[in-house]
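User: Just a sanity check before I run the rest of the batch. Below are the structure tokens for the first item. I only need the designed sequence back.
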């Protein structure tokens, strides 16, 4: 497993709670634009992604070619109504989920890095666990910067930062 990816994710999650807790419910009702998600909805999406990815990480340890249900992120955010959550409760829930992911990654055997995880990128239905961990870091960092931008504390991230070459895909 690329321990650098795990370390970057751990550092991101370690520094995020204090930054996120400084933000207010009122600030996080702001949206990225008309018809786009609010800060609360973005954090809800980050949480949803973490729960999906935790399942992929765990399932990759015992199911070689498991089937994973389609994840319609917009429907998940809409149905769970994250704008009705108290901001601090949502931050706590999200950080807790990521801490559990990091714990799980830190106890996995090194050979798990090449395990296949069901997720569709490019023409492949699977990525390696190692590739997925790098993507989890970039995805989380990207959306956190969107949240900080809504509060006037960051530049809006470039979507290119989220992309990664897929030539390593199985």
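Assistant: Here's the designed sequence for the first item:
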């Amino acid at each position: 497993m690329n321990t650098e990816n795990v370390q970057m994710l751990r550092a991101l999650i370690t520094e995020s709670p204090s930054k996120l807790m400084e933000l207010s419910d009122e600030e996080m009702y702001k949206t990225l634009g008309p018809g786009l998600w609010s800060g609360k909805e973005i954090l809800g999406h980050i949480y949803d992604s973490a729960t999906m990815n935790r399942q992929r990480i765990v399932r990759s340890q015992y199911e070689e070619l498991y089937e994973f249900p389609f994840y319609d992120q917009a429907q998940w955010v809409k149905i769970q109504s994250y704008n009705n959550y108290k901001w601090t409760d949502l931050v706590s829930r999200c950080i807790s989920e990521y801490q559990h992911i990091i714990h799980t990654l830190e106890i996995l055997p090194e050979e798990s890095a090449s395990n296949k995880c069901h997720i569709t990128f490019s023409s492949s239905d699977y990525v390696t666990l190692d590739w997925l961990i790098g993507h989890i870091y970039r995805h989380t960092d990207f959306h956190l910067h969107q949240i900080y931008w809504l509060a006037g504390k960051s530049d809006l991230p470039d979507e290119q930062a989220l992309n990664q070459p897929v030539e390593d895909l199985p």
